[in-house]
Write a structure and sequence with these properties.
This protein has 466 residues and is α/β, with parallel strands linked by helices. It is built from 17 helices and 18 strands. Bound molecules: nicotinamide-adenine-dinucleotide.
Amino acid sequence: MEPPEDTLRRLREAFRAGRTRPAEFRAAQLEGLGRFLRDNKQLLQDALAQDLRKSAFESDISELIPCQNELDLALRNLSTWMKDEPVASNLLTKLSSAFIRKEPFGLVLIITPWNFPVNLTLVPLVGALAAGNCVVLKPSEISKGTEKVLAKVLPQYLDESCFAVVLGGPQETEWLLENKFDYIFFTGSPRVGKIIMAAAAKHLTPVTLELGGKSPCYVDDNCDPQTVANRVTWFRYFNAGQTCVAPDYVLCSPEMQEQLLPALQDAITRFYGDDPRCSPDFGRIISEKHFQRLQGLLGCGRVAVGGQSDARERYIAPTVLVDVQETEPVMQEEIFGPILPIVNVRSLDEAIDFINRREKPLALYAFSNSSQVVDQMLERTSSGSFGGNEGFMFLTLPSLPLGGIGNSGMGRYHGKFSFDTFSHHRACLLSPSGLEKLSEIRYPPYTNRTQQLITWALSSRSCTLL
Ligand code: NAD
């Protein structure tokens, strides 16, 4: 195997030689990625089943189809996205051409987590390749089945002079980060996000941080409890709760809690049967370590639904907790598993205050028959994404950006946002080499007349007159 420092040197040289810049080269890489997805669909589904016991259907809708959609969109729009973007000029630059050029950063590092290990690796990769970068991929070492497919099979479909997969955990990643990259795209926990940002700062490397945290879900008294329970159940227990944007906890009144509990139990039984352990549609916890952490959280508050677990299978039943204290671990850390605590609040104002006293979440959900309640929640809080009477369906729209704010991250991607994230927006102004007489007005010594003229020419009013 090639030593990692040689890999980085090789990729940098390929970028300097301009290999990744032509549109045809970018399109060929994206097409290669498309062939990888089609040729290895079964292999990827098997790997996801091995890692997370993800069903083939959930693998399709949350991993493979989103990658294919992003690819198709990028291929369809590549030439438009790559075009220089003309911008308005002022009177002093009227004879010049002003535009924004989207140019690749250079050598990009993409570091990814284990919970949607195909989607969260290949969707950023689409953006990085479309934007004409060379890429080092560092998949999660925890989703071992998928890591193996990405390391062994994916490079066969891409130009290896411009693309490489580097394997490893924290130690290897820390070594990678000592090297200078031109852009780092990280998806993972806020804790590691801080390590990434500190390492990037040493080289002044720009970063996108797609992080996590606790995403609240407010349920108003004015709603149909069964409808809310159906939606919350699907989004909370999808991928056995190991979803960054999953509703992490419910905020509602004690009266609504009484109605929600039987409705949640009903939805869980309809979706996953009397014993969810036997359901082909319910996943498993990624590792022994993560299982132990979640097992510990089951001791918080009181179990109202579920609560069963089996260490041999890394199974934790879809669980609802009540009587939970704010100070308990389940309300202190991101749950990232099939456990849903309910916290009581007396009003919308109290719910908003509860949310605003905490870190800004990656996603925020509000359920109510009253559009004013949903609007109030949207207006008076902040989060990466927002779902009104909805779970994380916003992820299915490449027209919407995915990204956090504050503790849940910085930057955004999906669709054209990905292309823009992986492109430097270079400000360009091309002026005629002649016509110096017109330029002379700018130079000292400044007279009263030239000062007035230039001030006027620079003002926005002069532009609107033209
Ligand atoms: P993690 O932060 O532990 O690991 C992510 C990546 O960082 C992995 O590739 C890992 O090898 C690497 N890493 C781990 N420790 C490191 C260190 N000390 N130095 C350098 N690199 C290190 O995250 P995870 O457990 O894989 O994923 C779960 C977290 O990711 C949750 O917080 C979740 O909310 C978040 N997440 C966010 C999104 C999003 O789109 N915002 C998506 C999925 C997951």
